[in-house]
Write a structure and sequence with these properties.
By secondary structure, the chain is mostly beta strands. Helices cover 8% and strands 42% of the residues.
């Protein structure tokens, strides 16, 4: 079981937001095959859940991704992605030798975006292997005459820079990596255009703008952090050049886009800069001891320097050599990774790296997801947010032509003791949206339409688009055998002897319409063998009429005493019954309860003059025979959260218990709150497993400040 917490925050302020009630989480393989899917309920921007790794899965590297319905309107680059390693110790790991790929990918990036003839430029470069990790190499730049004019090599993570004054000719880089030479063409040199260079000083960014073949004109410089404009500047060029400064105090922590516009508003140069968070030690984490023995209590103190309420998650797990990927942290993700395209190697390292290393990232990876051209194009919104509840999306098609039918009523029902029903009218594309307010776990859904020519189909709520994710082969070998055996035995001990997490179940059994004004528990009345007698003798607010051989119900308005004119909604365990004759032919001895709502009621966008709701004893429809064309499907609703179990060793019998405790994950708590700067104290117990344990605490403050802290302790026998 893999446990997680979800934080849904504003992309601009990083404050928790309540605009979506559902997050979709998927476990995806190297070929973008989806292995696990689940829906997690969100409340005020926070959610928690778990993924149960199937026993049939092969060992390897996979990735988790998470997104909301609203995020499907934009590029999948904006989804959360995190690579993870899964080891199935019941399958052989080392049967095949891994095929090593020595190919590298090298790219060059002129600062600001344009490479202009005769202007001294900074050129950034990045070289990565097939897994996306930076590589060491040596390189030379050769002009079109074959002259070597520059030597270069990376500083860290395969990235670096060099300066040169280009002429109007072609340049080629020759890269030597592990004895293999690769030729790469440098970007084209433009005869005219704009160049923008930025120098980072202690307190400000100095910007130099140079041009060639461009008339002096007013230009505009705009700086924004996560689409929030922090700085604007307008001034005419003088002799084709301009210098200005941006104080760092005007900017926010994270990535700032600095863009140069011409007098006509055309973006011509862009540069990204990174401002580190002011206090990286804003969250302190400490334990009451650095070393302890098995089955002992550990006290954990958490303290934040942030004055607002902090919402955190806490995990305590054994640190070992099996980790293939850097653990994600919320600070580097929100301030760095989430604003850039692709995968960043060791993003957390940049929070403490020197300026040069961070700037190399901005110059290379900093060709970001943000494009001014996208703002000029009107965006078609296809997916509205799940603002109140999980949305079930269906299409209604014509049975004969298979084409969508607009303007047709459709219903989605979930029969059971807690009855759920949603209804709507299809849009111009035959699309039906129904809110599923309380669906959790596996449900049987019934899809219906009163239109005889209609056929309903449920659409998958999961995204069918994927990014290109280079997942390297699993990096474990025979040297990890003992650690893997240790982990496997611990897992089997937990499965055999551990107390398993309990599912949090909904106890509320009320219907979607709440408490009905009139409820008839039929066992309290004289039982009749025919439904017509039950309705005529007991249910005074429903008049039974016949038009030819067809039964119809008319509801008596409780307030005015007259009959309501419109059609009433007839339900059996929450499933609409379009033909009243069918319910009148049903065995009344199978009905436990009858609810009547005598008045106008809205189901989604549909209105009815009253509801007559029959409920069976088990909520299982009592064997009611539906039309063969009625669509019935299994549907997975929101995940039912399981509480993480952590044993306590407080008494002598508990400490001396012979039941083994093989836990490597000692503690998981996704619901920790700190009120301002107060100290929060938590406690947990060690297991029977010696080793070094790592405590990781991360979360978000109410003002949008991301928080991260960690500590470690050792357990000995």
């Amino acid at each position: 079981t893999s446990w997680f917490k979800i934080y849904l925050v504003s992309g601009q302020s990083h404050q928790p937001i309540n605009t979506s009630k559902v997050t979709y989480v998927e476990l995806v393989g190297a070929q973008n095959q989806v292995l696990v899917q689940t829906k997690i309920e969100l409340s005020n921007g926070f959610g928690k859940g778990q993924i149960n790794i199937p026993a049939s899965i092969s060992s390897g590297n996979y990735y988790l991704r998470a997104y909301t319905r609203w995020m499907k309107n934009y590029s999948v680059d904006f989804f959360f992605h995190q690579p993870i390693t899964i080891v199935n110790t019941f399958r052989r790991l080392f049967d095949r030798e891994q095929q090593l790929n020595n190919d590298i990918d090298v790219q060059f990036f002129p600062e600001g975006g344009q490479w202009i003839d005769g202007i001294n430029h900074k050129i950034a470069f990045r070289a990565v292997d097939f897994t996306g990790k930076g590589v060491e190499f040596t390189g030379i730049i050769v002009n079109s005459k074959g002259d070597t004019i520059n030597h270069f090599k990376p500083q860290k993570f395969g990235m670096g820079t060099f300066k040169m004054i280009p002429a109007s000719q072609d340049y080629t880089a020759f890269i030597n990596h592990k004895g293999k030479t690769t030729a790469v063409k440098l970007p084209k040199v433009n005869a005219t255009g704009f160049a923008m260079q930025i120098v980072d000083t202690l307190s400000q960014f100095n910007i130099q703008i140079k041009t060639k073949g461009v008339f002096d004109q007013p230009v505009y410089v705009l700086a924004h952090t996560r689409h929030k404009v922090n700085f604007t500047f307008s001034q005419p060029l003088k002799n084709g050049a301009l210098e200005l400064t941006i104080p760092k105090s005007d900017l926010e922590a994270g990535i700032t886009h600095i863009t140069l516009f011409t007098s006509t508003g055309q973006p011509v140069c862009e540069r990204l800069v990174f401002l580190k968070p002011g206090d990286s030690k804003i969250l302190s984490v400490s334990t009451d001891r650095e070393q302890t023995s098995t089955r002992k209590k550990i006290m954990l103190d958490l303290k934040s320097k942030n004055a607002t309420i902090s919402n955190l998650s806490v995990s305590v797990m054994r640190d070992d050599s099996l980790h293939q990927f850097v653990q994600p942290d919320i600070v580097s993700y929100l301030l760095l990774s989430s604003d850039l395209k692709g995968s960043i190697e060791s993003p957390h390292a940049y929070l403490n790296a020197n300026h040069e290393t961070t700037d190399n990232l901005m110059l290379t990876h900093g060709w970001s997801r943000f494009r001014w051209e996208d703002l000029a194009e009107p965006k078609t919104i296809q997916h509205i947010p799940e603002y109140r509840a999980n949305l079930i999306e269906a299409t209604i098609l014509d049975k004969q032509t298979q084409s969508p039918i607009p303007g047709v009523i459709g219903y989605v029902s979930a029969p059971g003791k807690r009855i759920e029903l949603g209804g709507a009218i299809t849009d111009k594309n035959g699309l039906l949206l129904v809110e599923a307010n309380h669906l959790s776990g596996t449900n049987k859904l019934i899809l219906q339409s009163p239109s005889e020519k209609a056929k309903l189909e449920i659409k998958s709520p999961y995204s069918s688009s994927f990014i290109k994710f280079n997942l390297l082969p699993i990096g474990l070998s025979e040297k990890h055998t003992q650690a893997l055996i240790d982990k496997s035995i611990s897992m089997q001990i937990n499965d055999a002897f551990g107390k398993h997490a309990s599912t949090t179940l909904l106890s509320d059994s009320s219907a979607f319409y709440g408490t009905a004004p009139e409820t008839y528990l039929l066992d309290d009345y004289t039982r009749f063998p025919v439904m017509e007698e039950v309705m005529r003798e007991h249910v005074k607010s429903v008049w039974v009429r016949k038009k030819g051989d067809q039964f119809i119900f008319k509801i008596v308005d409780r307030d005015k005493g007259n009959l309501l004119d419109g059609e009433s909604l007839v339900l059996l365990d929450g499933v609409p019954i379009f033909n009243v004759n069918d319910i009148m032919a049903f065995d009344p001895l199978k009905i436990k309860q009858l609810d009547v709502l005598p008045g106008r009621y809205f189901v989604g966008s549909l209105a009815f003059d009253g509801i007559v709701s029959y409920r069976t004893y088990k909520g299982d429809l009592g064997g009611f025979k539906f039309s063969p064309e009625t669509v019935m499907i299994d549907y997975e609703g929101l995940q039912q959260y399981k509480e993480f179990y952590s044993p306590r060793y407080e008494t002598v019998p508990e400490i001396n218990s012979r039941i083994p405790d093989g836990r490597h994950l000692l503690y998981w708590n996704p619901d920790v709150q700190i009120n301002g700067t107060e100290t929060k104290q938590l406690e947990f117990y060690t297991s029977d497993q010696p080793g070094r344990y790592k405590v990781v605490v991360q979360g978000i403050a109410a003002d949008g400040t991301p928080l991260y802290g960690e500590t470690a302790f050792t357990v000995v026998r």
